[in-house]
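dumping this here before i forget
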Amino acid sequence: MPYFTALPPSTPSTSSCKIVQDRHDLEGIIGGRDDLSSEVPVTFKKLINDPFDVVDEALDGFVYAHSSLIALHEPRVVVRRSPAGSKVGIVVGGGSGHEPAFGGYVGLGMADAAACGNIFASPPPNVILSAIRAANHGHGVLMAYGNYAGDVMNFGLAAQLAAAEGIEVREVRVSDDVASAPKGEESKRRGIAGDIIVFKCAGAAAEGGRPLAEVERIARDANDWTRSMGVALSACEVPGSGRPTFELPDDQMEIGMGVHGEPGIKRGPLRPADEVAGVLVDTILADVESLRGDVALLVNGLGATAYVDQHILFRAARRALEARGLNVVRGYVGEFITSLEMAGASVTVTFLHDELLALLDAPASAPAFRN
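structure:
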């Protein structure tokens, strides 16, 4: 009997929660500010104040904690504390709730600015445009972001607005999640922890003085050679919603679930880390036609998975890759792109050549990534 049961294209257990976009949405969920403490069922304990203020207060705290590296250019736009010199600008961004993404990847050798949206929601075009302006040093701007409909629309609109101001902007949509679309439809895939590999390589190329077309090429190459696969063990809760983003029995796990609770591809009993790593690695490798000998391996915790567990998963994934003839020459373990307090992790494999390896090894100094 198989350990996992394949999920149908849509399943009630993975229906997404309502995203809190503004105070009207929030009050529609919880019935008004007077009901915050008495009417909302408590499913997850959180150290917050007003749910509507979560994003801005968290950004303030994040910038305060890393004030030697980053600053708030304006609300929802994180920039380098010391602006870069003459080079291609790098803008990253997406919804909040994935901390340390995206402000954590602003700094030397990485991004110049990050545009931050509401919880699990794309930043609006005006915020992205502000980030583009802040990152522009006269040599064009590359935007790198996850391949989600809201981000595609809003970053695209911001690029058009920037072009009207005379700023040349290129876009790269990260699409590393092999669970989100089949082989041959890579352009439909979501971006998850592979974001970090693309941000790092593009940032290093820009810091090294390469022109915009070269930085774009490198970002696309990093994306093309990066694959990820995740496993969820429990849900998270959007502040103020009063309910989990999806339901998953305590003794179950779901393979392939997205960082916003998007449906995965398999559900079954919780299994040992070695078996889970084998499933994730085998699925990743089956998606690549030409396997290169050297790889980078990144294990990403989703928010509520202990570092002990993350390192056990890394050990298992490394052994699985080596058993299949691949050589893990770079390793990264930690929380790179989370999903609030979701339990689970993802495995990312980047198939390396000399240029990508050199870019990964280039100096970087950002709150969430340093070389």
